[in-house]
Amino acid sequence: MKFQDLTIQDMRQKLLAGDLSSVELTRACLERIKATDSTLNAFITVCEDESLAAAEQADQQIAAGNMGLLTGIPVAVKDIFNTLDVRTTCGSKILDNYVSPYDATAIAKLREQGAIIVGKLNMDEFAMGSSNENSAAGAVHNPWDTERVPGGSSGGSAAAVAAGQVVATLGTDTGGSVRQPASHCGVVGLKPTYGRVSRYGVVAFASSLDQVGPVAGNVEDCALMLNVVAGYDPADSTSVDCPVPDYLKNLNAGVTGKKIGLPKEYFIDGLDPEIKQAVDAAIETYRQLGAEIVEVSLPHTDYSVACYYLIAMAEASSNLARYDGVRFGKRQDPGEGLIGMYQQTRSAGFGDEVKRRIMLGTYALSSGYYDAYYLKAQKVRTLIRQDFLKVFEEVDLLLTPVAPTPAFKIGEMVDDPLQMYLSDIFTIPTNLAGTCAMSFPCGFSERGLPIGLQLIGQPFAEDEMLQAAYAFEQATDWNQRVPEV
Amino acid sequence: MNSRYEVVIGLEVHVQLTTKTKIFCGCSPGFGQSPNSQTCPVCLGLPGALPVLNRQVVEDAIKAGLATNCQIAPRSIFARKNYFYPDLPKGYQISQFELPICEHGWLDIETEESGEKRIGITRIHMEEDAGKLLHNDDNSSSVDLNRACTPLLEVVSEPDMRSSDEAIAYLKQLHQIVVYLGVCDGNLEEGSFRCDANVSVRPWGQKELGTRAELKNLNSFRFIKQAIEYEVERQIDIIDDGGEVVQETRLFDPDAGVSRSMRSKEEAHDYRYFPDPDLLPLQVADEWVERVRNGLPELPLDKISRYQNDLGLPAYNAGVLAAERPVAEYFEALVALHNNPKICSNWVMGEVLGALKEKGLKIAECPVSPELLAGILKRIDDNTISGKIAKTVFEEVWQTGKTADQVIEEKGLKQVTDTGAIEAIVDEVIAANPGQVAEYRGGKEKLMGFFVGQVMKASKGKANPGMANQLLKKKLAE
To answer: Nearest CA to A199 among A434, A356, A361?
Structure first.
């Protein structure tokens, strides 16, 4: 059996039984990365020496009977997480040489549970993008069709799991950045409720929307990863102090008697027919599994994309102000004083999409425009959140497509940013509402491209959502297929 | 007061709080430490670091708000003030904008010219300080972020002041209050209490405000007064010459006594304020406000009126004793031990403050505690020593830390009240000064002072002056 066919649970058993050592596992993983990453470009940094040293320690711990949830298991994280002593580029030239003096809380939690962090994953610059084409480290290629994008912004996090480079990864999801690439790569990706996982140490894109999310090959591993990273963090004022259930515990609770809503605004005419077919089939599967399917309405859905981009860009324009050449970024100083240094450094250090968003966000916050744009967007956001809360009085979960099309070709949409923004249309509303959602495989297009299904859960009801996803995964075999890379 | 123009002044004061840790992280706001040694990912503004609000800062803001008659907002919002400057590590300052924690307050001030007057306080909000730029010899600059994230309260007044005197009276009172509350050390020179003044003039009777200039870099009450007066004159000159005052920020140069334009309105920043998504709206429960209100110290104005009304002190004494909280506390501790406010007041204002000033000490460092001083005053009261000897005792207590009784005993300073002993001295004095005795008996009664002086001198000050007086009168009349 190839190591890339193993789940986290398989690995744990083998490590505990002594059938496999962490060093062997980590070495196999590093070899797999070496063999595939020239094709995929999923990694920005691979930590070979560090991870082998950590693996040796893990083997000692396992021998000593100290097995955490992830002890000895190689994982990788999006390059947006601050990691002590390993550079954190956030996919940007401006942070090219940046080495953080501290670990993000999510990283510290991975380490506490013994995970081996083998590297930092490629991403759209500052998590801005839906295709992973906006990376200073170059585009990531979809393992199912290397001419296609893996989705974004956590493209590396999804592609690495799909290609069996690592068993699980962490990404971040601001408008669909975990779910959309998970869908395009045929893996499981989860965006927790805002406040469920600490944002401390995650380079900020849009602070009121960013949330850390796990990506894994199956629902169970995804639940295990969430077990590791979820929880209140006093260092993040927006993290929420409410109990974290064991997401693995009642995973097989099933969906009998559950009420699943289909928001009619998500089943629009423009939806790709292959996606519609796959989602329809999934609905039928849930019906057979004993769920009650009802149509519901989220009336403000149409405003989501505009609302999201105003808020996200406004926050981003402020969050990215610190990259000004004083302490971050390669300083470009033509000797024209401070303003000249700022302009040159930022012009040279940021990519086009990031610049576009900084400028739009700055405009939206400017005096005289604030009320018309930012403030109005916040009001619309409240309405969108109310849509969800209201509908959750009637149903337990919502079921929707993840993306309007399967993975598109690299370069196909780069000249049409607006069209690109629309590819997040089904994932954005949950970030605005702050609730949880996940993507998992529900079919393949004729070309053999994965199609994902989205479940949206009630705030802090990740357990219920995972149970429903698990039931589907058990009833189907979509996640058994693996790409040939 | 100018006969043609009315002066309008509004003040913005930055009060640096003396909390143990910074406003959004656990670093100590260490001053005078080596550059960037008092920092962490949060106050350095490192990518991914997040602010967590220091509860003590909120408590201090509530204190300041209550002491200045503000309403405390049950819900207030932190906002980002966006601008680029190398001493601002995040590219924005976390402050409060639309919903500050305190609003609608006031202070009553008093000046010679305009008497009592109420000055409105628009708002008090919490914010973080920026770092500091250090300019090097080689034309480069370095950034020290030790001060970054240090907690500040910004106290914004209404444009209610009409002269530099009123501005100073308001500032002094605000200064006294925040120092009294223990939320600020009040050091103007070191920037713990910083003032920006918005100054404009308008023809008397005009309703609209004139165009204002904002004066910065005012780090003493004297400079503030100078800068305002310079600015008023400057603006009047411009208007008189047919010009127009432009809205701008001006930097005061205390050495030259003038201000210079720093930036005009056109160059003014658009700060693009928006609610900081990293911090939740701040909820302040009524119970919290009440708890703080109940724990507030008695404020200077209340003390002054109590000292006058309940303790019967003159206004001047009450003002001096209440001016600084430690002095007031010393005085009150003394009165509690020695229930004669007038005498206590005289001794604190005279001997204690005098000696402290001479030695350059603060009252907290005074070697004569209220207990020791009360011990001296008690011995005056029971005639063990005279008021004059008491001053000698005070000096000795100051030097040695011994009690009054120990000093009196050891130095033999006990007042002589034995009639026989005093009589003997009186006899000696009369015998030694026949000329004066004759003059006295001839009607020159003023000489009584001379005789008493001689008796005191002969007794080394220990004779009871009243008894000496009585005996002299009797003997000289014989």
So the answer is: A434
